[in-house]
Amino acid sequence: MTPKISVIVPCYKQAQFLDAALQSVLVQTYTNWECIIINDGSPDDTEKIARNWTTKDARFKYGYQPNGGLSSARNAGLKMATGHFIQFLDADDYLAPQKLEASINRINLDHGTNTVITNFRMFDTNPAQSSEPYCKLSQQLFTLDKILYHWESSFTIPIHCGLFAASFFEKFRFPEELRAKEDWVMWICLYKTNCKTGFIDQPLALYRKNPNSITQSKDMLPDVIKAYQYLKTPLSESQYQGLTISMLSRYYTSAVYFKTKRNEIKASNTYIVGNLIKRGLSKLGILKPFKKVLEWIYTKK
Q: Where is the Glycosyltransferase 2-like domain (predicted)?
């Protein structure tokens, strides 16, 4: 069985990485694919680069939309997709050459399998120089309970680790009101369907370390709350209550940890001496000039 795979590549302000991502699709050992590039209103060279690829190989398709966010761009790609299976690939990430073939081979071993997940590694600039991931995936993690209650505290699954039956997306679309956590929502909704997962313990997906990505943002709490509110509909009452308890416990533990660390810092000799110096400078009326001198010194470094 050699079913068609639709690879969906949304791109917004990632033109500098797009060629490498698309090259990783072109060199796949499995050849029955289409690659749908969605330009999410990107102000860079995304369109020019995408057009070059559609000229080079007819399997590359191009779509444009005004900026609507990652979920909206993925949904646009799903509308264009004609494959039996879906492979997502963010424009700054990378697929190993065997990713699609290995996934289809795993499905062919058991035709009941409708999702295949591989392991992954991380890289900075060169996929050939990858490093150990922030978590190690295993078959035991792929359950609704694990994804619902242990996501981020123990593991996450980069979306391009997965290959998905297109039939799942006949009913599911990424929630466009979410700016982040849309992957988590998708995995939860997927495992609500009792999907059968095949696992390949090989790093066939490569994840770029990007400090500017939304997943690295410090201001994600509003997005977490939105995702939590969204999940009230697909989850049962008991599952939603369990998620509430899990999230409260996690954030309480974090708050206690940071409060303890803050108290340790305040009790340190360095902090005490620094406070004494600050008070002394304030009494002498030279605290503000002293701060300006320090700022000048640091800007000259």
A: 6-158
